[in-house]
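> tool_call: predict_assembly(chains=three)
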Amino acid sequence: MENQQTKQAQVKKEPFFRLVKRDTLPIGTVVLIYAIAIVGSLLVSSLICSAFSDKNPLQFFASLFGGAFGSSRRIWLLLQDTALLLGVAVALVPAFKMKFWNLGGNGQILVSCLAAVACMYYLGGKIPEFLLIILMTLVSILAGAIWGVLPAIFKALFNTNESLFTLMLNYIASGLVAMFITIWVKSGSGVLYPLPNGHFPELFGNKYLLTIIVFFVLAALMFVYLKYTKQGYEISVVGDSPNTAKYIGIDVKKVIIRTMIISGALCGVVGLFVAGSIEHTVSTASANNMGFTAIMATWLAAFNPLIMMGTCGFITFVDKGMVEVRSAFGFTNDSIANIVIGLVYFCVIACSFFITYRVVLRKPLFKLGKNKTEGEGEV
Amino acid sequence: MTVFLVSAISIATVLLYGCVGEIITEKAGHLNLGIPGIMCMGTAGGCLGTSLYMSVAHENPSWLLLILISLVFAFLFAAALGGVYALLTVTLRCNQNITGLAITIFGSGATDFLMSFVDRTHFDPAGKLFSSALPFAESLGDFGAIVFGHGAFVYLAIAVALVCAFVLNKTRVGLHLRAVGESPATADAAGINVTAYKYVAILIGSGIAGLGGFYYIMDYIKGSWENAGIIEAFGWLAIALVIFVLWKPHLGILGAFLFGGCYIVAFVLANVTSTQKEIIKMLPYVITIVVLIVTSIFDNKENQPPASLGLPYFREDR
Amino acid sequence: MDKATVIELRHITKRFGKVVANRDVSMDVKRGEILSVLGENGCGKTTLMNMLAGIYYPDEGEIIIGGEEAIIQSPKDAFRYNIGMIHQHFKLIDVFTAAENIVLGTGEGEKYDIKEAKTRISEMSEKYGFHIDLDKKIHEMSVSEKQTVEIIKVLYRGADVLILDEPTAVLTPQEIRRLFDVLRAMRQDGKSVLIITHKLNEVMEISDRVAVLRKGEHIATVNTAETNEKELADMMVGQKVSLNIDRPLPENTALRLAVEGLTLTGPEGNLVLDNVSFDAYSGEILGIAGIAGSGQRELLESIAGLHHLDSGSVTYYNPKKDKPITFFHKSFERVMELANEGMLRYADGRDFDGRDEDGKHLSRKTIKSLVEKGEIFFKDDEVINLREKTPLQIKELGVRFSFVPEDRLGMGLVGNMDIVDNMMLRSYRRGHSVFVDRKTPEDLANEIIESLQVVTPGTHTAVRKLSGGNVQKVLVGREIAAGPKVLMAAYPVRGLDINSSYLIYNLLTEQKKNGVAVIFVGEDLDVLLSLCDRIMVVAGGKVTGMVDARTAEKDEIGLLMTKTNTVTE
């Protein structure tokens, strides 16, 4: 590092190593770096897991893949959860591309889920099913959009810090859910059992398919929106250079607000599916922390919705696989999954360093005159 | 009323540790969203220390040794996870928000995992020892209970906040640290070792934050354990508190008390429905949002976050 | 002349990626001398000095101090060798006081005693003749005060070698005189002073020796007494460059832009523009001269609609009399607005107000087809008030402004986007489709790359990866391609080599010939005098003079540039 050995500087020595910014790496190398990081972190995880049990690292990988792909039901679940996570990532990506730190995905999912369940609770059985589903859709998208646009309005008007605002809204959303459950569940158990009405239709007799199709299609649409539409272009300009946006006459405030309505509304769609297609109820854990997980997925995919399909798939794969690892290795709680995912994140995050910078090692102690490349190691 | 104030002070202590820890890291220019995970990690470390000590000395545990050992454990575990954050964001210059979130995910997972190995058989007596009040507290009635009736960690938190305020504003180290957070390039040009300051600030800040989670489990709820979720929630609230008190540790003492009061009032109020309780529990978050908005409207040069908060520093950037 | 050598540079080379900033530079610094490091913008003089100050580390070569090789990895190391640098962008912390900034990073291991430090600073100030309020916060200070803080900061650390990076660029003549007095006092005291500059007159006035750099290479070091400005200039630019810019006389000039009493308060609460009035005519280049930071930037930004003005007006005269109105630059709503104002007529002279003979409103479709067929004409020139209009509103009014801002990557372009996407910035709104059209900008990008000889791997390279000159060509090319009636350019040749600069001058002249009103903000008076038709001089946010560029003398402008800057006295 640049200044760790200042004391030794008196000794006649060049710095041990220095950082240099690289030119762009070829895409193949970038993929390779990420692959090494992922495989490496999984290897470390396998060693950790086997250290805490009597199983060996190979069984870790067997369970990991078995848990994710072991049966057709598991594969369908994997796809469904990937689709949900992808849905959140798709919702967040326009905001992040605009450099608006929407950390409120969880809250936006929760309020919309709550809104949909409210429809199911109050109107279920009283109006026709299709009408109920339409109503649920409208109400939950609206709820998500409101939760998204609130911080955007204040950001646009007063430059209020959005990451903290959205973070706080997560807890308010969770509080609202808890509050409504106290109203709906008279027993005081705090658990609302699945409601009978407002279930989304099964597609070709498959209850997972609708969710999967909807969110993969949304991801493709988001790709087109960001890359090929005027609004998507404006988002990039505002995100990369707000001054340039002002200079060419983009109404930055309007773009921030519009984008966050979209972002919140799309989170609303996820909440809607959680309520209508999967859980048929709501709890403070309904968002399943996807609001945060999806941030990692978008960031790892460099804000490209098509690549996000892969990153969401990978994260869900680890998540699902770890459930099996956990039971196979006899761990008593599901925290091991978070540890493994955390490790993978660390390694992958660290990759950004090796992609941006080059480490130049000190030349060997013997002098080679002015030879440019001789002795310059690269890591 | 006494119960309320005593509980509010306890919650305030949890938040104050987190808040002061986060202020120190933010003063070095690092928005550490990993603080919730780091507070969890401190809890795990402290509980491990307690369990190790109690398994040796469960017959006749020494108050001082118990406090010291668990404190060191809590601090070191939290600082270790802070070290991972520092490595990623300072040396490897990774995105601070992303890294922080990963730290929180990892920290809460690792804590749940570690806690499943921690022997909690002697936590009950240990908890009592932790929360043992100053000897003369009882003789002073309500006043004594409120002011002197707490365990050592409460007074330590206040001391830490005051020392932190003093160091930041009245010492050379504080001047240098603030310079690093305001403008690392300037600090670097002035011959300050930016990397070292960032590392030390993040490690110490994380260690201090870690004490908060441990205090909650050991002192406030006397060693019972469900999962890391509750501490994580305190962590986010602590980050909110940093903004509420405008990056001033001494104001943190008052702010933490206010937040703690809001948090606890729902539990101690009699004759309110569970619905109303949920509403009251949302108040601290609403208040924080109001403060966020108000401070952003009255944009004042002296009350702003450190100027380089969130930005990586690379000297040869041009 | 037999002063001891303090620092010796041997064969220093420094690269940034593929760019070589310094190549095999060898020179020396002597005790008790003032050495000027002279060179054009971008010749590597600042990079070279940064290696002495520990900001950069040389890729090759060595620095010898006191007979031994010195390893300067950080500013801290530099201070250990008693080298201190005052950067052009001050490295001060805004929310700290002067005293806090001065003691920053010093006295490790000692007791922190700001009072004692202040006493020491005051003693030093007396010795060299500084005047400064040590308890004032930096963000409340003037530029000259900040510079003083920087110099004290370096002296406080016991520096014997002071490096100043273009110290006079932001100062008034009085302040410069005071600075030079201070520097001479330091030389008297046995200190070595290095001044990075490109101003020949200052070199002659203050320095003992001059080291000339060109394109990263050291050309020569000469004694000031044995040289003259012309010789230095020749060394600096390599070949004799008589500014031979083609300057035709303005033709068919007409009032295009009238600025009246423009006043603007800056973020610090001071007046950055103070009652500025001027006219710009089509077919001429109006130069704006002034010391950097005299309000040039704010003036152009105000005209472009980027600031809320305190008072004043900006009026645009559109030469539309008897010309058909089109939808090319006017929206349907604007056409209706003009119709209601009675500005339009039919080909046969009848008024067009959007109604038929019976006073009934014509349908949108009818009006559209009338305009598209070219049957609606302006009665008179269009006069548009631009005060309090946003850039988008200005554009929607049909005003054709092009603006090359000073901060290219921060305002004119988006660094992370490729050339094609940057071409679109001005035009992406065109058409009713929700999708952007990338075909037209791609063609435009190719055209500009070819005609302006932009060096780039392709049209899909991010502009931040291009060199400064090529970035500027992309920006200027785009702004000219928009077909402006008014072209404003702030320092369009800053950091460009001679060839690129001439290319830009020729482009501006060509625009002038095409009847565009060109407003050119420049820093080099020779360029202003040989490129422009009229020159407006600004100082401290005020207009201090308007001269004819063909007859004006350089010193006359120099005087005007410094006319009102006596407020800090």
